[in-house]
Amino acid sequence: MKENKQTKHPQTFYKVILLALFVYIFLVSIELLGGSFKLMGEGFAHQLLHTTSNPFIGLLMGIIATSLVQSSSVTTSIVVSMVAGGTLTIRHAIPIVMGANIGTTVTNTMVSMGHITRPVEFRRALSGSTVHDFFNVLAVITFLPLEMFTHYLEHSAIFLQKIFAGVGGLKLISPLKIIVKPAVHMIMDIITSLSLGHTLTAVVSFVIAILLLFFALSRLVSIMKQLIIGKVETLLHGYLFANPIRSLLIGLVLTAIVQSSSIITSLVVPIVGAGILTVEQIFPYTIGANIGTTVTAIMASLITQNPAAVSTAFVHLLFNISGGIIWYGIPFLRKIPIALSKLLAGVAYKKRWIAILYVVITFYIAPLLLATIIEGG
Known about the structure:
By secondary structure, the chain is mostly helical. It has one domain. It is about 85% helix and about 0% strand. It contains 17 helices and no strands. Helix 3 packs antiparallel against helix 15 and helix 13 packs antiparallel against helix 15. The radius of gyration is 21 Å and the shape is globular. The relative contact order is 0.16.
């Protein structure tokens, strides 16, 4: 018996080391994926954000720009700087910020594709990732018309800005990015040294990121299934995700530290895929991540010391809090994004190509097509 315990401890330690390694590879792949999109589309994102006064165009441009750079923090920071520079007004910036919330969910939905070869896992993972999508879409459907008629977000944000007037800016440093970026820079340097040209470099880095993502995910799920027993399982169910408030706070704090809701929400996708946590358990966690991601833009706006820029950043915070109050705080409404995510996952479980079609249409084709139609009209 003692011998079994002595054998078990080194094996567990070895698995924990491997888990840490694959989590690191996973995080590198997410950062590299964002970097490749930025290489292909950040300049395009800047152009997209120079939008018209039509709020629907602004919303669609926010979705497209954020889907390209895979970071709502990047989009909202660009918007904040544009408002500070007088390029955009607060009123015109608000729909773009709302669109950024939808666009940022593309990352965790793409992460769920890493489970596509394992149908049962894929069903759970897709449901766990798209609950974030549906929550943000429903929040926009609720608050964009309300904002157009009442401008309550704009007025509330200006009121908050006046309270924080004179507060100095503070540049947050993400510890995660400090750890991950050397590996990403090394990969990018190797690709760049091949002198493939700007576009091809972006494509190659994207392919490598996807390969690393799939590799890391397949190993993560396998190891987590072996490790998540006994005390570790009790920690997840009995402590970290024991109740919605705790789950929400964990999502909020982790995202505020890491400065990326995409990474924080993507981290739980393989855990849901492995059947360790449920969609219901991680839903408040994603809402917390939504709120936590606003920290970057708030800090960036405080640095500018521009009242309009600070107000724009507070719009993002108030919008995410409002969405959480309505679509999670009201029990019968809470069931809708969960039901929709499970419905989509159930359909994609039988026909997995539908999931790929969902990503391409929702985040790229539909916004571009609608923007073209509205602009033309």
